[in-house]
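Q: what does this look like with guanosine-5'-triphosphate bound?
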Amino acid sequence: MTSTTVTPAAPAVPRQPAPGINTGRVADLIGQLLVELGEDPRREGLTETPKRVAAWWSDFLAPASAPAVTSFTESHLAGQLVVVGGMSVWSLCEHHMIPMNLQVTAGYLAEGEVVGLSKFGRVARHFAGRLQVQERYTREIAEHLAGVIGREDVAVAVRGLHLCMSMRGVRMEEARTTTVHAGGRFVTDPVLSQQFLTVAAGQRRVC
Ligand SMILES: Nc1nc2c(ncn2[C@@H]2O[C@H](COP(=O)(O)OP(=O)(O)OP(=O)(O)O)[C@@H](O)[C@H]2O)c(=O)[nH]1
Ligand SMILES: [Zn+2]
C-alpha cells in the first residue's frame, strides 16, 4: 500500500476568509459594540471580553488553504461505496452571524484508491470556518472531495440546526434543514443514490 498526500487542484473555492485577522482591531471594535449595546466594557466581567471574542474569531476563521488530503492505493478496489458520517461542526450563518450546527455525511466511490478517513472531517471543519449558508457549505465540501478523488462520484448530505431559526426570528426549535449535493454516479445510478441516502439517514446523529 502506498500513500500520497494530495492538495488537489480543486475547483476554485470562492469567498476564502483572509489569512489571519487583526485581533487588536477586532477587540477594539467589540469594546465599541459593548458601549453601543449600553454596557460598560470596563466593568468587572467585561474587561477581558473584547480580547476573548477577538481570539475566538481568530480561532474560528479557517486558514485560507484547504487541508491536504492523504490517499492510499488499494488497486483491487472497484466501485466500493464509502460513507463517513457523524461529523458535527459549528459554523456561522452569514445572514445573522449566529451559530449553525452542521451534521455532515460524505460518500464517494473508491476506485483503486482510498481517502484517509479523518480527512473528511478536516474538510468538513475547514469549510465551516467562515460565514456560511448551508447550501454553499454542502456544495463546497462535495466539490472539494471530487477534486481530491479526481472524479465526480461524490455525495454529501448535511443536516443543519440554525439557531437563527431556533432561538430568534420564527423560533422553531425543532426545525432542521437537510441539503444533499450529489455528482457523477450518485446522480445517474438511482440504486447507489438510494444506498447513500439510506446509510446517511442511519448515521445521522440526533441533534
Ligand atoms: N437558504 C438558507 N437560508 C438561511 C440560512 N441560514 C439562514 N437563512 C435564512 O436567511 C433568511 C434571512 O431573511 P431576512 O428576511 O433577510 O432576515 P430576517 O428578517 O432576520 O428573517 P427572519 O429569520 O424570518 O426573522 C432567513 O429566512 C433565514 O432563515 C442558510 O444556510 N440557507
Ligand atoms: Zn441566520
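The radius of gyration is 20 Å. The chain is about 35% helix and 30% strand.
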